[in-house]
Amino acid sequence: MTTWIVVALVAIGSYAFRYVPLVLGARIRPDGTVARASTTAGFAAVAAVVAGALRPFVESGAVAGCAAVAAVALAVALTWRGHSFLVAVGAGLVLDLLVTALG
Fold first, then answer.
1. Which end of the chain, N or C, is surrounded by fewer C-beta atoms within 10 Å?
2. What is the pLDDT of residues 59-78, one digit of tens each?
3. Are 89 and 75 in contact (CB under 8 A)?
4. pTM over 0.70
């Protein structure tokens, strides 16, 4: 339930950030801080969801926890380097399967 609340709040904020300037025109302009924060809000929400999903694996201390953390780290690194989301998730999935199979 909490995940859906976060997703809904980010969606509403994103929609409002794009809709308000259309309605109000040039009267209201967000400053640079708001513009920078809005570009990272979606990523922060996804990171929170991923961290919550990884928590049970990490607390168990099993190989699955290490595999999941390694997969997420690889996906983040690939995304940071400019690769597409699909490539990052695919590489993370392959790494997760390999570490789990070898562990």
1. N
2. 666 666 677 778 888 888 88
3. yes
4. no
Q: DSSP letters along 20-54, please?
A: HHHHHGGG----HHHHHHHHHHHHHHHHHHHHHHH
Nearest-angstrom CA–CA distance, 21 and 7:
22
Clarify whether residues 78 and 98 are in a common domain: yes
Other CB atoms within 10 Å distance of the CB of residue 102: 8
Alpha-carbon distances of 35 from 9, 14, 42, 43, rounded to whole Å: 17, 11, 13, 14
- Spatial CB neighbours of 79, under 8 Å, sequence gap ≥ 6: 85, 88
Query: What does the alpha-carbon distance between residue 103 and residue 68 come to, in Å, rounded to a whole number?
Result: 12
In the chain, the number of structural domains is 2
